[in-house]
Amino acid sequence: MSRNTFLFIGLSALCVALTVSDIAFGSVAIPLKSIVETLLHPNSHGLYADIVMQFRLPKAITAILTGAALSVAGLLMQTFFRNPLAGPDVLGVTSGASMGVALYVMAASWWSAAWVESRWGLILSAVAGALIVLLLILSVAARMKQSVTLLIVGLMFSGIVGAVVSILQNLSNPDAVKLFVVWTFGSLSAVTWYQLQVLVPLILLGLLVSLMLQKQLNAMLLGEHYAQGLGISVRSTRLLMIALTGVLAGATTAFTGPIAFIGVAVPHLARALFQTSNHRIITAGTLLCGVALLLTCDIISQQTTYPLPLNAISALFGAPLIIWVVLKQRL
Amino acid sequence: MAISPFNDPSVELYTDDLTIGYMQRPQPLVVQERLQLELRKGEMVCLIGPNGCGKSTLLHTLAGLQKPLSGKVMLHQRDLFSYSMQEKATLLSLTLTDRVEVDKMSVYELVSMGRYPYTNRFGKLSSHDVAAVENAIAQVHLTEKSKWSLDTLSDGERQRAMIAKVLAQATPVLLFDEPTAHLDLTNRVSTLLLLKTVAKECQVAVLLSTHELEMAMQLADRLWLMSHDEIAVGTTEELIQQGGFQRVFHSDLFAFDSQTRRFVIHKEKLPR
User: Fold this and answer.
1) What's the CATH superfamily of B11-269?
2) B87 CA: distance to closest CA in chain A (Å)
3) Nearest by CB: A278 against B87, B109, B119
4) DSSP secondary structure string, B126-165?
5) Which domain holds residue A265?
6) pTM of the full structure
7) Do B89 and A277 touch (CB under 8 A)?
């Protein structure tokens, strides 16, 4: 058995174990037997069954989707810019989502705070914000010659959005500001079964297309001219990569709030583990590592009686991971 | 009927009244005009000329990376721009000066990308593709290092790996932009000899730009001597007789000695 096959089997097993742990451990510990029983009879009722079905299971599924989506989006952007510092937020899609949420939460506070309560309002405004930035970025990308132009434009978008959000915060009432700040902490627990019906197909589709793109992505690693020389249509590949990143990062951010560092850190972790940049292996590897890392972060964040902000935990883990990988590779 | 590029089967690529340059406002920037050039199978052509005369522009135009201002590039008797990306990738390849910076990619992985124009969506290699990749790696003498990561190779080996990639691509026309840049003397000579061998043994057309004038004079089957306003084509002997080198590389610092085929620095210019 080759090293990679071994790693894939090991990582998959780890992901399964972490999923079970994510359901089992929390403010209330649930015995393994009850988890298995609940999963076998999803319509049964009882304290444990209710916690698992109403709370822990949808959260675990959200963690799996978010971990996979953000990591693969990060990999796509690192390949796109051929830059190890790129992540799913460089295009400004995440900032776009924040601006949508900020506008929704805080502008609404001027007339009524009552209808802000509905979670769909948050989600739709985040989707709208992400989509607007994505369309702007795509229209720039269709015209530009160099990838780095897009990096600058994305950064500028983030700057504008940051400014708008500050102004809104300044003008809004404290309750609305708190609501927005809580959203920026990132949370997996607010996603319901109903919302998962939207999120699951969207993310699965995005991941599937990313896995199919391995040949184009490998060619892009060599640079635009070489990719073109190998018969790859650079323009359409680029637009597809941007759209995929938008869908993967935009959809997860809309439902869970921004989650930092996973997207930048995980591709490095995967490359260090699998010792290759070949997308034939690394896309799937990144996906599995992302799932494992976000599940771990979620398990840690729910150990205290009052759950810690996921965004803080992911950064607390993600940043040292990048430092470790970078030092190990370059020294 | 007289033999012309239009019906000569040994001509792989030719240009017809080609004007190269850049579309700019208010008026286009013309780099070279009315070029009639041809590349034949089995021949290595060296493109030489001073910096800024348009060598890279010409190579990019011949490879279809940029559009000509006017005229045509004909590849296998068809306009270059009438080919699909994939068709073109089976007929013509260009290796550029820019260094490929990829972490953790093995020589084998790089060379197998040369088979992309022939493989399915997932880049799955058939036994024929595998043979082509292994052959290409053997041709550039990297078989022992085929599992090595590119970032552990020397500049010379890296250049050979890039050459192996286009050999695996098996195109009848191979273009190289300064394949000898950044290399030491031994690697410069061996790279040029390798390309000459490839042209002869694989019966392909090789065009490369280089600043290694004296080596190009010894090795090229034909030279494209590019000045700022024209391209003179001929063998080394023909160009020496026409005084081409003296004219294009004109300087008050050195002179071309047609007897020894060397450029000699004027004694009085040496500091005392």
Assistant:
1) P-loop containing nucleotide triphosphate hydrolases (3.40.50.300)
2) 7
3) B109
4) -HHHHHHHHHHHHHTT-GGGTTSBGGGS-HHHHHHHHHHH
5) 3-330
6) 0.89
7) no
